[in-house]
Specification:
The chain is α+β, with helices and mostly antiparallel strands and 266 residues long. The protein is built from six helices and ten strands, in the order E-H-E-E-H-E-E-E-H-E-E-H-E-H-H-E. 21% of the residues lie in helices and 29% in strands. Strands 1, 2, 3, 4, 5, 6, 7, 8, 9 and 10 form a ten-stranded mixed β-sheet that branches.
Length: 266
């Protein structure tokens, strides 16, 4: 018997999330089915992060035990031949029998992506939140600084989470943006910006790393930082929300489609 670790990438649009549920198809359900067929064993994988419905991943992690003679590194290639186009195995490797993706210390990195534009461009609709009003990224950066470090993040967690403690450590939050590369004539000119308040469309990225996250924590942080960027909250209000431990004071969670689990480092 050997333990195999999978690094998994998926587009969460068509799934009810990572975990098997009664109301639709889950990512782990699809992988279990194809692994069991490939290895001719009854396989149930154990994932590191139970991403919600609509959330994407570049590097989620899961393990399973098997008696297969297929070399560990070739399982990914073999499995990818049958998996659907929106789920692929990035890497497969053997790990020690003691390794567990949930209970081994790790750093998780998520990215929340926002389309900040007067027009909700169709090619971005499945992977970004859409904000019509211009975001002040510098104010969002100042607000995010209050969240770095070890804190009680109860105010940034939805009810229903199974974690016993709401204490978490955020190592870093990076706010960056890039202007969209649009056809000639699609970007407003400097003159038009001055005349009617238009602004250059951009993609805003909130990249956040920590030792773990509460239920909906990243999406609530993203929604709160959006409010700061729009001028609804001053940056200092984020510290007040954090100190309050009151979920009612933070913003609604941002949509799932903007969130991607980038990587998990052990």
């Amino acid at each position: 018997m050997k333990r195999i670790k999978l690094t998994i990438s998926y587009d969460g649009t068509n799934y009810v999330g990572w975990q098997v549920q009664k109301n639709g198809i889950a990512v782990e359900e699809v992988i279990n089915k194809h692994l069991s067929k490939l290895l001719k064993e009854d396989i149930t994988i154990v994932g590191a992060s139970r991403t919600d419905s609509g959330v994407h991943a570049l590097g989620n992690v899961a393990i399973f035990d098997t008696n297969t003679r297929i070399p560990s590194g070739k399982i990914a290639l073999a499995l990818n031949q049958s998996l659907p186009d929106d789920i692929k195995i990035v890497k497969s490797e053997e790990v020690s029998a003691e390794f567990h993706p949930r209970y081994t210390d790790c750093t998780k990195t998520y990215q929340y992506n926002i389309l900040n534009s007067r027009v909700n461009f169709p090619l971005q609709r499945l992977y970004t939140d859409y904000v019509y009003y211009e975001l002040d990224v510098e104010k969002m950066r100042r607000a995010a600084e209050y969240l770095i470090g070890e804190h009680d993040f109860k105010a940034f967690s939805s009810a229903g989470g199974q974690q016993k403690s709401s204490i978490r450590t955020i190592y870093n939050i990076d706010l960056s943006f890039e202007y969209l590369n649009l056809p000639d004539g699609a970007n407003p000119s400097k003159r038009k910006e001055a005349e009617n308040g238009d602004f250059l469309p951009k993609l805003v990225h909130i990249t956040i790393s920590g030792n773990g996250f509460l239920y909906n924590m990243v999406r609530i942080i993203a929604g709160t930082l959006e409010k700061v960027g729009m001028g609804i909250y001053p940056p200092e209000h984020v510290k007040e929300i954090l100190d309050s431990c009151d979920r009612r004071l933070s913003a609604p969670k941002a949509p799932a489609r903007g969130l991607t689990l980038l990587k998990i480092e052990y």
